[in-house]
Amino acid sequence: MEIRISGVTKQFYPDIVALRDVYLTIPQGDFVYLVGPTGSGKTTLMRLITRELVPTKGQITVGDCNLRSLGAIDLAYYRRDIGVVFQDFRLIEGLTVYENISFVQEAIGMPKNLVRERTGEILDRLGLWRRRHLYPEQLSGGEQQRVAIARAMVNCPGILLADEPTGNLDLATAEDIMSILLSINASGTTVLVATHNQYIVDEFRQRVVGIRRGRVVRDERKGRYEADGDL
Amino acid sequence: MSGTKGKAGTRRMAIFRYILRDTWRLLARNLGLSVLTFVTAVAVFYLVGASVLFVMNTRAMIAGVESNLFVQAYVKDGEESMRTVAGKMQAMECVASVETITPQQALESLKARLGSQADAVTLLGDNPLPASVQVQVKKAEFATVVARELIAMPEVDDVVYSGELADRLGKISSFVSRLSMVILVICIAAASLVLFNTIRISVYARKDEIETMLLVGATPAFVAFPFVLQGVTLGVLGALFASGILYFSYGYAINALIHSLPFLTLIKDRELVLRLGIVLVGGGVTIGWICSWLAVSKFIRAATRPQ
Questions:
Q1: 3-class SS of residue B93
Q2: A85 contact B CB<8A
């Protein structure tokens, strides 16, 4: 599914413009880093793609779907094809690792045997099988991030959005998370990563879209992090 | 084709199982709140049931008195006038029955009442008793209206009825009806408020979970259903327990009343309480459904409305 962002402006209050006339096309299977200083509009762009927000001007289409015209039911079905890794993980405290991953499948009516099979598979793939009975507060930051990725991935979405997936993680864990995201991308999933992490952008070089003050200021294949502009 | 149908069936079954499990989780996770709501629902539904039974028994008592309440009109010119008056009365909406009493029937009735002293009537010579019309009204409050109608008729000589009793019964009847309506409205409002707040607290406690569910593609109905079922379960359980308590306490109270006040016309049939129980459970389902739906849909609408 291609993501096409055409002339999108997002204004929150009369004087806060988060995004300004953004044009961006992300083909199916692309891996994109969204880089830019805090408050530049990276998270807003992701929230526009998940349709938590609607543009003040312009339009976003994902595949054949114009996000502005989605009704409540269509929105639910659209979101089943989008995996989101939140900056603050948003794991559910009262549920175990296993339940945190299985509930998103149950929420879309997946049969029990398939839920068991796919949860087991993803836990195994992300090295969480032995942690499956633990609760989020019993996990390290890196493990919580893995669970968040597992939850975003388990329904095999066409697009994966990860907001600061390596934030607050040590280098080794960040590398580990990045290799997971790259392997997901290798299987055909479009991956968008909003990040401040210069090391991972330079180490795992992919397409880099720089955003400053709500505008796209650069878009480079195999780009690098620009400490002056992106920080 | 059958494979697609089979898949859809499995999916629906999985959703159904999830909803049931989630409803149970909701009830168990907020156990204190669930118990409190259940107890309140029992109290409220008991109060509703008790007030309905009170009203029905009061009405039965009033109806008992009303069935013996007649307006008697004595006519001036014999049986012709009697038939005219009776005809006019039968045409009135508020009249339950009309009976004509000829002078001869009146005399026979007097003799019957006098029993062994019936011979004393012969001292009167010719029958001096007038023809009359006995009117039974549908409700006590209509007695005065009927009496006024009768007095205004040229054929009528005199009207006899228990005017004060009729007025009082009418007032009591309408007061009891209004009071029961007020109690009913207060009880329903209280039950609704308690259920609404319980569900709202449950929704709020799972705010993050709901938002995450909506973000991963759960439909609003799927998210709302466990909360709605939680509300319905609490409403139904409250109504069921209230009906049970009502059944036994009504039996006990009615036996005690019949024993100490045997002249009262009371409803002894306990099947009435069972029928009332069914109505209460229906009320529990309706109130539980509406309140929880309102509480959860408001939140879901806010969560899915893009900013």
A1: coil
A2: no
Q: What is the mean pLDDT of chain B?
A: 82
**How many angstroms separate the CA atoms of B143 and B70, rounded?**
8
B306 lies within 8 A of chain A by CB = yes
Q: Enter the tokens of residue B101.
A: 């009493």
Question: Is B6 inside a domain boundary?
Answer: no
- Give residue-wise pLDDT tens across range A7-55: 999 998 778 899 999 999 999 999 999 999 888 899 999 999 999 999 9
Picking from A75, A77, A78, A81 by the largest number of B CB atoms within 10 A of its own CB, the best residue to mutate is: A75
Q: Is the ipTM of this complex over 0.90?
A: no
Give percent of chain B above pLDDT 70. Answer: 93
B15 touches chain A (CB under 8 A): yes
> Are residues B178 and B36 part of one domain?
yes
Contact A225, A37 (CB under 8 A): no
Residue B233 and residue B270 share a domain: yes
Q: Least CB-CB distance to A51: which of B222, B223, B306?
A: B306
C-alpha–C-alpha distance, residues B242 and B299, integer Å: 31
Q: Tell me, what's the pLDDT at B8?
A: 67
- Find chain A residues with C-beta within 8 A of B307's C-beta: 12, 52-54
**pLDDT 10s digits, A153-175:** 888 889 999 998 887 677 887 88
B305: nearest CA in chain A?
A: A52
| B189 shares a domain with B261 | yes
Domain co-membership, B250 together with B147: no
For residue B117, the enclosing domain spans 70-161
Q: How far, in Å, are B131, B155, B213 from residue B158 at the CA level?
A: 11, 10, 81
B126 touches chain A (CB under 8 A): no
